[in-house]
Write a structure and sequence with these properties.
Strand content: over 45%
CATH class of the largest domain: Mainly Beta
Number of strands: 19
Order of helices and strands: HEEEEEEEEEHEEEEEEEEEE
Structural class: mainly beta
Helix content: 10-25%
CATH architecture of the largest domain: Sandwich
């Protein structure tokens, strides 16, 4: 009997605490957990700039000879929806091979859909430097791009309380599953709702915002500043998200929607600007010259 009393007391405490949590603004949820509501999520590519078509000429490299590494940088974005990207590019860590041409390509700009060709010539070590044994030159190419925008848009279907009650009385009310469109690039921002849609105008809407690194590189400084706003309108909340591994903490936001109609589709937009870097490595095998 005492166990039952303990359980009931615990539930009562949670029920008292819950409304207080909902009244909070944009905060880190800490230990607060709640079941999320499903959304239809549409992703664009997790790539933005890629290094491709890596080729070594000649294909078989011998001691004491020269060889060239060719590669291409491509902006995979759609010219109709993506922006130009500013990036820097350099090659380093050549092992016992020595570059004989420029390895730092500096800061450049690339348009959506554009490809740029690059090459680096190197000198293979001599037989004596290799001790007449097979050697390896791991050539690393590092690409860093700056001020790229992560952007996600999600539907927010809002209805007046009177309209909702009318539909419920007539047996015509249905929950709405929103679609969130997650933009191009390795950093993806996601919404996580706690309530089904439609939302009721004038009442608190609670949701979380967080981000994932879905690329092969790293977010510079490991942090991004996310701002959530109504499309064409005001800001709801903003917060700094810190990456722990490939995912950030979740930040809770509270929004009170208002409409001047019985029902209306609004859109929430989350945006963040970030810098990103990644590497490609080409391991070139150098063979000793026959004696």
């Amino acid at each position: 009997m005492s166990n039952k009393k303990t359980i009931i007391t615990g539930i009562s405490s949670i029920s008292i605490l819950f409304p207080i949590i909902l009244l909070c603004g944009c905060i880190n949820p800490g230990g607060f957990f709640a079941a999320s509501v499903s959304t239809n999520t549409v992703h664009k590519s997790s790539d933005l700039l890629v290094i491709k078509n890596i080729k070594v000429v000649p294909q078989r490299v011998y001691a004491g000879t020269k060889f060239t590494l060719y590669f291409t940088v491509k902006h995979v974005g759609d010219p109709r929806t993506s922006d130009a990207v500013i990036y820097s590019l350099r090659a380093y860590d050549f092992g016992i091979c020595k570059p004989i041409t420029q390895t730092d390509m500096g800061i450049q700009e690339i348009q959506p859909g554009e490809e740029k060709e690059y090459s680096i010539s190197l000198q293979a070590p001599s037989n004596s430097e290799m001790a007449d044994l097979e050697a390896h030159c791991p050539i690393r190419i590092r690409l860093t791009y700056e001020n790229v925008k992560a952007r996600t848009q999600v539907e927010a279907y809002v209805m007046s309380e009177e309209r909702m009650k009318t539909l419920q009385r007539n047996g015509k009310f249905q929950n709405y599953v929103p679609t969130q469109k997650v933009g191009i690039g390795p950093v993806k921002i996601y919404f996580e709702f706690l309530q089904n849609q439609p939302f009721i105008a004038g009442e608190n809407v609670v949701f979380f915002v967080y981000a994932k690194n879905e690329g092969d590189g790293d977010v510079e400084n490991g942090k991004i500043l996310v701002n959530v706003k109504i499309a064409g309108g005001y800001s709801i909340c903003s917060a700094e998200l810190s990456f722990i591994g490939d995912e950030t903490n979740k930040v809770k936001c509270t929004w009170v929607p208002s409409i001047n109609a019985d029902e209306k589709m609004l859109y929430l937009i989350a945006e963040a600007t970030y810098d990103y870097s990644f590497e490609k490595t080409e391991d070139v095998t150098v063979y000793p010259l026959p004696q």
